[in-house]
Amino acid sequence: MIKLVITGVWICGVTLASVYFALQTASKPVETQEQADFFGGLDYVRSDLISIPAIFEGQVRGYFITRLVYTAEPEVLNSLTLPPHVLITDQLYTLLVGNRVIDFSRVEEFDLEAFRAVVRDGLNEKLGRKVFHEVLVEQMEFITKAEIRDRERRRRLPPPPPKTVGESN
Fold first, then answer.
1. What Cα–Cα distance (Å) separates residue 84 from each residue in 9, 27, 41, 47, 79?
2. 116 Cβ contact partners less than 8 Å away, ≥ 6 residues apart
3. What top-level branch of life does the organism fall under (predicted)?
4. What one-character-per-residue DSSP string does 139-155 give?
């Protein structure tokens, strides 16, 4: 009888110890040095929703709408004389309206990685040092003038009258 009680206590002890050990190891994140360098110590700057007109052959063909997130070192961000969102908005207008990085006549050939690199590198070049490490896309879309007109037309149409019971199509 005593052997049975001792065996039961031993099994309970081993089970509790293994559950405790499993919870302790599961709650500790496994972090490599590269992840620590990438995520540790950087601030995330979220830009406002930016709407940039897509001008092609002298006419507005639509609007490029985007919201980007930038990673940057907090000490450097605090030392800037301009707020980061002003720099970001200016860089996007320079690239999309001034330099025409995106060919809006062929939007289907858009290269997202190249766009992110051009924005990041342009911001860092403007500041004269590496401030912005990564450009992350939160939202991005291109709306043509035809789509805008169609949305406006649908918004102005009166709602269809309600159907009565027994009415056939």
1. 62, 35, 17, 8, 11
2. 134, 135, 136, 137
3. Bacteria
4. EEEEEEHHHHHHHHHHH
Whether the Cβ atoms of residue 85 and residue 45 lie closer than 8 Å to each other: yes
Position 128 scores a pLDDT of 84
Report the SS3 class of residue 110: coil
Residue 83, CA distances (Å) to 39, 49, 70, 79, 88 in order: 22, 16, 13, 10, 9
Instruction: Assess contact for 94 and 132: CB atoms under 8 A.
Output: no
What pLDDT, in 10s, does the model give residues 29-77? Answer: 555 545 545 556 778 888 888 888 877 777 888 888 888 888 888 888 8
User: Domains, the chain, ranges and CATH?
Assistant: 37-155 (3.30.479)
The pairing of strands 59-72 and 50-56 is antiparallel
